[in-house]
Specification:
The complex is a heterodimer of chains A (356) and B (181).
Chain A lengths: L3 E6 H11 L4 E4 L6 H10 L1 H4 L3 E4 L3 H13 L4 E5 L1 H16 L4 E7 L15 H5 L10 E3 L4 H18 L2 E7 H5 L1 E6 L34 H18 L5 E4 L6 E4 L2 H16 L4 E6 L1 E3 L3 H7 L5 E5 L6 H9 L5 E4 L9 H13 L2
Parallel strand pairs in A: 2-3, 2-4, 4-5, 5-7, 6-7, 10-11, 10-13, 13-14
Antiparallel strand pairs in A: 1-8, 6-12, 9-11
Helix pairs in contact in A: 1-2, 1-7, 4-5, 10-13, 11-12
Chain B lengths: L1 E9 L4 H14 L3 E6 L9 E9 L11 E6 L2 H7 L3 E9 L14 E4 L2 H7 L6 H12 L5 H11 L8 H14 L1 E2 L2
Parallel strand pairs in B: 1-4, 4-5, 5-6
Antiparallel strand pairs in B: 1-3, 2-3, 6-7
Helix pairs in contact in B: 1-5, 3-4, 4-6
The chains are: A alpha/beta (356), B alpha/beta (181).
């Protein structure tokens, strides 16, 4: 079969990948800068290609609860939105996590708080990795840094969601959502699911007990037991840590950045090395679980770390926890919809880390 | 080879689509490409710009603060981006409506009166392709055959009958661009 190489926007890659990953349904509500997901799906008519359902809900609240419903039936379901919309999702996400349902949620982050701007931001890190909704739960969070990864992580997201019966978040932003790059698409996956379906609520058959999907448990003893089970699952999920090392081998100074900031920092690594500064970049690909072990190990080899993110400093907390005081860790980043340039990051690296 | 380009002008001038055709042309030539548009309010009447990177290697940052080439199609864009061209780099601009012309001595400055030329052609919507032609005359980073293949890829089939007139516009642009002393 010939290779399918297309020039797509990040948002379009999410949509095409959803069809190809054999998704049964997409529910969403338009919001900039991710509207191309729904637009692409509407144009592409996946109901004719694979039978996939695409529906524009009347609100974000409706969309996330449609996801809840479809996921309860064991279906491969995906939704996408941007920051204010994802805030509206949070109640549903907490219920989905509590009920242990698989789904893929895409957040194309824009500047906040509130309605903020429509430009790229990474200020939803706390919300995505530390809970977001109420209760003790975690999403498995993937952070694509290219249009290629936007496509690949949809497929990977479904696999991980079903493996752990846990919602997976693809945390991207307006930059990766809007750029066009070459993308090599994977082959169409059959919608008929390959995943375990023993728990789904599609009607009781005489040969088994009822399957119950709920996040409600009025007996505290039972709810604590359920929480222990969730915590054991999150511990198991730690084995899914993924990261990329760029020029780390001989690095004296390490930048830590994910998503579009990692792309900017890649250029900063080149600029720094041109100046004789041995800089490297560690790019977390999973934000939960976080590559803490790797960073702790790197802390023995480098003189300082700079966490670069389009926020006032969120991921830097996880870097500091991982490094545990061994070396200085600083933060740099523009925010509110502004994107730092490679040279700005280099200046910050020199100012905050190299010269210290 | 890596060529980092900014194209900027009014929304509606075909800035984004010109960038897109350039990106597609690079892709047809088996190169790595990235196309990052200004999106949102700029698209609706204000200024629009797009960063296009064409490279033999994997593209790192799609966001840049200096460019090998700036293609500037209105006064605001000249004002904003002239200073962001790398020393020794290239600035191409359309003279239409420009009162403060670019004046740096450490870069190459070329002028192309594409708006005037487009008005003479059968359809004035070829404006951006005239500019593209001018740019490719100075920096032939993609071959003509790949530009045509790129056009075919980026235009929906219902517009494919316009490919010959676009090709003509690219060629015309190559003829009328000139260096400003």
């Amino acid at each position: 079969m010939k290779k399918d190489i297309l020039l797509l926007k990040g948002n379009e890659a999410i949509a095409e990948a959803a069809i190809r990953a054999g998704a049964d349904a997409y529910f969403g509500y338009p919001i900039t800068p991710q509207s191309e997901v729904l637009e692409y799906l509407m144009l592409e008519k996946p109901e004719e290609r694979t039978g996939m359902v695409v529906l524009q809900a009347e609100s974000e609240l409706a969309a996330i609860n449609m996801v809840f419903g479809a996921a309860s039936a064991g279906r491969k379901v995906i939704t996408s939105s941007s920051s204010p919309g994802v805030s509206l999702y949070q109640e549903g996400i907490s219920y989905i996590a509590g009920a242990e349902l698989p789904c893929v949620i895409v957040n194309i982050v824009r500047g906040g708080p509130g309605l903020g701007t429509i430009q790229p931001s990474q200020a939803d890190y706390f919300q995505s990795t530390k809970g977001g909704g109420h209760g003790d739960y975690h999403l498995l969070v993937l952070a694509p840094a290219s249009v290629q990864e936007m496509a690949d992580f949809v497929k990977l997201g479904f696999e991980l969601a079903f493996k752990y019966r846990n919602p997976v978040m693809i945390l991207s932003d307006g930059l990766i959502g809007q750029i066009m790059e070459k993308v090599e698409l994977f082959e169409q996956v059959d919608r008929a699911t390959e995943f375990d379906q023993s728990w789904v609520t599609t009607g009781k058959t005489p040969d088994r007990e009822r399957n119950i999907i709920t996040s409600l448990n009025l007996q505290s003893v039972m709810q604590e037991k359920h929480n222990f089970k969730l915590q054991a699952k999150y511990k198991k999920m730690q084995s899914e840590v993924r990261f990329e090392e760029i020029e780390c081998e001989d690095a004296e100074y390490l930048m830590v950045a994910y998503g579009s900031s990692a792309r900017v920092c890649q250029k900063t690594v080149q600029l720094a090395r041109d100046k004789g500064i041995k800089a490297g970049l560690l790019r977390p690909i999973t934000l939960y679980p976080y590559p803490s072990g790797k960073l702790n190990e790197m802390a023995d080899r480098v003189k300082g770390m700079l966490s670069v993110e389009m926020s006032a400093g969120q991921m830097v907390e996880d870097v500091r926890l991982a490094v545990n005081g061994k070396i200085p860790v600083e933060h740099y980043g523009r925010f509110g919809g502004m994107v730092h340039s490679p040279r700005e990051v280099l200046e910050a690296l020199e100012e905050k880390i190299v010269k210290k | 080879m890596t060529e980092e380009i900014i194209v900027a002008g009014f929304g509606g001038q075909g800035v984004l689509s010109m960038g897109k055709i350039l990106a597609y042309s690079g892709m047809m030539q088996d190169m790595e490409v990235s196309w990052f548009p200004s999106y949102g309010p700029e698209m609706r009447g204000g200024t629009a710009n797009v960063t296009v990177i064409i490279s033999d290697d994997r593209v790192s940052s799609p966001v840049l603060n200096e460019y090998d080439t700036a293609i500037l199609l209105n006064q605001q864009s000249v004002d904003k981006f002239e200073s962001m061209v790398k020393p020794g780099g290239l600035l191409v601009y359309d003279g239409n409506g420009i009162t403060t012309h670019p004046s740096r001595k450490d870069i190459k400055i070329f002028r192309i009166d594409a708006a005037d030329e487009a008005a003479k052609m059968s359809t004035s919507r070829t404006f951006n392709m005239i500019v593209l032609g001018g740019y490719l005359k100075i920096k032939p980073i993609v071959k003509m055959e790949n530009v045509l293949a790129g056009l075919k890829k980026s235009l929906p089939p219902r517009y494919h009958h316009l490919i010959p007139v676009n090709e003509e516009a690219v060629k015309r642009g190559m003829e009328i661009i000139y260096e400003v002393a």
